[in-house]
Design brief:
The protein is α/β, with parallel strands linked by helices and 392 residues long. It has helices at residues 2-36, 38-86, 89-92, 104-109, 127-142, 156-165, 175-178, 184-190, 209-222, 233-238, 241-246, 260-268, 283-294, 297-300, 321-337, 352-356, 363-366, 368-372, 374-385; strands at residues 114-118, 146-150, 192-194, 198-204, 249-253, 271-276, 305-314, 348-349. Helix 5 (127-142) crosses helix 6 (156-165), helix 5 (127-142) crosses helix 19 (374-385) and helix 13 runs parallel beside helix 15 (321-337). The structure holds adenosine-5'-diphosphate and magnesium ion.
Length: 392
């Protein structure tokens, strides 16, 4: 009996299981139906799309944040530049620390040609006149191979030397060298030969286009949108082996501003010559110029030497008392600032002959009196100040 009852319970349990199994099956079937429901499938896809869009949005946001950070840096940069543009010109050239190319100072110190910049922030003091006559002097008196570089966008040196040699102009050449587009080997290809008037002198010309190039280069450098330090471009060109082997003296005619070209000239020169008129207006400009470049030169070209101050446009062959007095102020300033300033003893008086050939010829080539008198003496002093030996 007991066994029979036990057998019945087992069957009931089996039947119960079958019943609940059917209930689970029904539930599964319902769930299956729901999953198969097209609306749920569509929802699932839309959920997937949304997830992807969210990922995309996150990516875009990351890019936007990076752009915003970059823009903030630019705005900060721009504010600094605006401040500097309103301030002194030399402040601009101190915004970024100097980043000279590898081995620059050493290569400059070992340069075979002597590199000399003739500059002053005052116009009309005789920078171009002196550059042209020194080129002729070094070529003819010393037999040197000269490269003359015009870095004044007014192009006066280019005009003077080209007209003197009877050569067509043909545009500004110097732009490509201060912008780093061309190297020293290319300089030899494009430089204007002044043969036969000045057979051993080559010229790199400039004109008004240069001003635009200079502004573009300066702004790009200020905004850090250039490769390398724009201030050393000309130096790299002049230190190229092709230029090093080809010339003995490089004379750079500077503009009356601290333009990109002027900074390039100061960054690659061994010597600086400052022409001045010996009057109360011009002499203080020399001091201002020296103070101004003193603010950035130690970082850019600490080896640059002041070869001398060339006194030009003096009232007569002998300096008048007033002129001597003006110049003595300069000597006092040198002493106070601890500068090694040297005024060449030979000055250039105001000469009608120099004014008459202005922009058209080089007086040294034309007039024996000037060649054998004033320029012979001044030239010898300049040669000595830049370390040439004794004239042949
Ligand atoms: N010693 C001089 N005697 C007469 N005229 C001169 C003398 N030196 C320069 N000049 C003239 O003065 C003007 C300015 O000279 P320039 O050499 O062009 O100066 P800068 O290059 O400094 O602006 C030119 O017309 C030039 O011929
Ligand atoms: Mg000039």
């Amino acid at each position: 009996m007991f066994e029979a009852l036990q057998g019945m319970e087992t069957w009931q349990a089996v039947l119960g299981l079958i019943g609940s199994g059917t209930a689970i099956g029904v539930a599964y079937e319902k769930l299956f139906q729901r999953i198969k429901n097209p609306e749920i499938g569509a929802l699932q896809r839309s959920l997937d799309d949304s997830k992807k869009e969210l990922t995309d949005i996150r990516g875009t946001m990351a890019v936007c944040n990076a752009d915003r950070a970059q823009a903030q840096v630019k705005v900060k940069n721009f504010d600094t530049i605006r401040e500097a543009l309103f301030g002194e010109e030399d402040e601009l050239w101190r915004i970024h620390p100097a980043a000279p190319p590898a081995g620059y100072a050493e290569r400059l110190a070992n340069s075979k040609p002597k590199i000399i910049t003739i500059a002053n922030l005052k116009g009309g003091v005789g920078k171009t006149t002196l550059t042209a006559n020194l080129a002729a002097y070094f070529e003819q008196r010393w037999g040197k191979r000269v490269l003359a570089i015009d870095l004044d966008y007014q192009g006066s040196l280019s005009e003077t030397l080209l007209i003197a040699a009877g050569i067509d102009y043909g545009g500004s050449l110097v732009d490509d060298f201060i912008s780093g587009k061309k190297d020293g080997a290319e300089l030899l290809q494009v430089a204007k030969s002044l043969h036969p008037r000045m057979p051993n002198t080559q010229l790199i010309t400039s004109n008004y286009d240069l001003a635009r190039t200079e502004n573009r280069l300066m702004l790009n450098w200020l905004m850090k949108e250039t490769n390398g330090d724009v201030r050393f471009n000309l130096g790299e060109v002049l230190l190229h082996p092709a230029v090093q082997d080809r010339f003995d003296v490089i004379l750079i005619d500077g503009p009356p501003r601290l333009s990109t070209g002027a900074i390039n000239a100061l960054a690659c020169s061994h010597h600086l010559i400052i022409p001045t008129i010996p009057d109360a207006m011009s002499v203080p400009a020399v001091t201002r110029f020296l103070h101004s470049i003193g603010n950035f030169l130690p970082a850019l070209n600490p080896a640059l030497k002041l070869a001398g101050i060339a006194v030009n446009l003096a009232s007569s062959a002998t300096l008048k008392e007033k002129e001597i007095e003006s110049l003595s102020r300069l000597t006092d300033e040198f002493a106070m600032a601890g500068m090694n300033g040297h005024i060449y003893e030979q000055h250039i008086p105001r000469l009608a002959a120099l004014a008459n050939v202005a922009g058209r010829d080089v007086l040294y080539l034309k007039e024996r009196l000037f060649r054998e008198g004033t320029m012979e003496k001044l030239g010898a002093e300049v040669a000595k100040s830049i370390g040439f030996g004794v004239v042949k």
